[in-house]
Amino acid sequence: MEKITLNVSGMSCGHCENAVKTALSSLDGVAAVTVSLKEGKVDVEYAADKVSAAQMKTAIEDQGYDVA
Predict the structure, then answer these.
(1) CATH fold of 2-67, please?
(2) pLDDT tens digit string along 19-48?
(3) CA nearest to 59, candidates 14, 46, 1
(4) How many angstroms separate the CA atoms of 17 and 50, rounded?
(5) Is this structure's pTM higher than 0.85?
(6) Domain ranges of the chain
(7) Distance between CA atoms of 37 and 9, rounded to whole angstroms?
(8) How far apart, in whole angstroms, are the C-alpha atoms of residue 66 and residue 60?
């Protein structure tokens, strides 16, 4: 398993946290997602052979948030 931290802007509440968590968790290969609203960071544990950072970024952006 690989780990990545994504910097996400635009998250401000529990709904935002759930939207990002749900979007990432639905991707095949994502094992765990931890969202920090205060820091604007999302930690993802994933299988690199099943999902890419680009796919994760797209999933978050599709929810209306920006990934740095």
Answers:
(1) Alpha-Beta Plaits (3.30.70)
(2) 999 999 999 999 999 999 999 999 999 999
(3) 46
(4) 23
(5) yes
(6) 2-67
(7) 9
(8) 7
